[in-house]
Amino acid sequence: MKIQAQFMAFPDDFWWGSAWSAEQAEGRGNTGKGRTQWDMSWDKYSHRFYQGINTDTTTDFFHRYIDDIQLMKQTGHNSFRLSISWARLFPQGIGDICQEAVTFYRAMLSEMMANGIKPFANLYHFDMPEAMMLMGGWESRAVMDAYVHFCDTCFREFGDLVYHWFTFNEPLGPVLGGYMEDFHYPNVIDFKRGVQVGFNTILASALAIKAFKCHQLNSKIGIILNLSPTYPRSENPLDVEAAEYADLFYNRSFLDPSIKGSFPGKLVETLREHNLLPLFTEQDLNDIRENTVQILGLNYYEPRRVKARTSAVNPRSPFMPEWYFESYVMPGRKFNPHRGWEIYEQGIYDLCIDIRDNYGNIEAFISENGMGVANEERFTHAGQVQDDYRIGFIQNHLAYLHQAIADGCNIKGYHLWTFIDCWSWLNAYKNRYGLVSLNINTQQRTIKKSGEFYQALSQQNGFFFNGLYVDF
C-alpha cells in the first residue's frame, strides 16, 4: 500500500494522548500501598531486574502529578490512560478501602479534568496485590470476586471523573509471562493453568462490566488488547494453517469473547483435544455472553509472522501453542534492535480493518504504540533528546491509521506509549519510550523533540506527511 504525501487531518475530537500504568509510574507514595506481585518477584528474582531497579520510586507520579499534568498539556494531550492501583485502594486486595488512596486519585483525576485532559482509567495492569497472589492469583475464584469488588468500588468513587473505563490492559500478558514464558510471577510453565487464568480473566472482565452497568454512568467500558496481525510466510496452505492457529491462540482467544461473547470454535476444539479446557459453569458462559465491551483499546507494536513447523514436536515437552507453528523472520524486515521487534507500519492498518470487518466495527482507539530506544541520552543536543526516529515512527503509523479511518474504521484516537520515560517490567529504564525524558537520579523531566512534535500534532489535529521515514 502506497501512502501519498499530503496533510493528514484527523476527525474532530480525536483523542491525542499517551498511556502508562500505576505500577510503572506512581511509585509507592505514602498511602500505605500494599505489596504487589512485583515486590514478590523482587524478593525472589532481584537479579532479573535491570540495574537492580524496582518499583519503589519509578517516575514518582504520586508526588509530581500536578507538574506532570502541565507537561501533558505542553505535549498536546487531550486524553491520558492511567491505571488505578488495586493494591493502593485495597492494600490486601480486600477489606477496608484506603481513604488516603481515594483522596489521591480524586485529586489527580480532578487535576487532569481541570486541564482539559480526559482520564481513561484502566483497572488492571499486571499489578495484583500480594495477598491476592498468595490466594492463587487469577486461578482463584475468590480473587476474581475481590477484583470485581475493587472495580465496583472504583465506579462508585471515581465514576464522575473518568471519561472511559477499561477492565484489563493486555490480559494475555499474565498468561504469557506467568505460565508460558517465565517473565511474570508466579513464573511457572503450565499452559493448562494458563488457560484457566485466561478464562477467569475474561470472566472477571465480563463481571466487572456487569457491575459497571448498575452505576448508570455516562462513560463507556471496554478492554485493551495487545494484538499482532498474523502473517503466514507464504500462501502455501500449511503456512496459512499455521497462521490461523497462531491467530486463534494469541488474538481471537480474547477478541471473540470480549466483543462477541463467545470463544472461537476451532480454539475450543483444539484445547479439548489436548485436555486443556478450563473449568467453568454455564452461568459463566452466560455472563460472558451478556456483558461484552462497549469500546476496544488496540495495542499495536509489531506483526506476528509464522510458518508451518519444520521440526517435530517433542510430545514429552509442555504443551505450547507453538506446537502448531514456528516463528518466521521475514528477510529485509525493518527492525528496532533495542527492543527486538519488527517495525511494520501497515500492521496498524490491517489490524483496524480486521476489527472493522470481523468485529462489527466497534468503537476503538490505538491505546498503545511506541518505540523503545536504549542509551537515548546519546541523542541529546543542547539539553534536549533529538528523537527524530520516534517522530518518524509515529508519523509512519499515523499515515496508515489515517488511511484506515478513511476506509471506514471506527477509530477515535491514538495514545502513544508513553508520556514520561517510565519503568518497564524487569527492563526498568533500559529502553526509553517517552515524549519527555527522565533523569532517574534527579527526577528531572525534559520534553524531547518528539514531545514538541506531539504538541503540534494535537493542535493541528494532523500533520503533513511527505513519505515514510525509514532511518531507524
UniProtKB/TrEMBL annotation:
Keyword vocabulary terms for this entry: Glycosidase, Hydrolase
Example GO biological process: carbohydrate catabolic process
Signal peptide: none
Recorded GO CC terms: cytosol
Pfam families, per database record: Glyco_hydro_1
An annotated Gene Ontology molecular function: beta-glucosidase activity
Family of this protein: Belongs to the glycosyl hydrolase 1 family.
Protein name as catalogued: 6-phospho-beta-glucosidase
Organism of origin: Citrobacter amalonaticus Y19
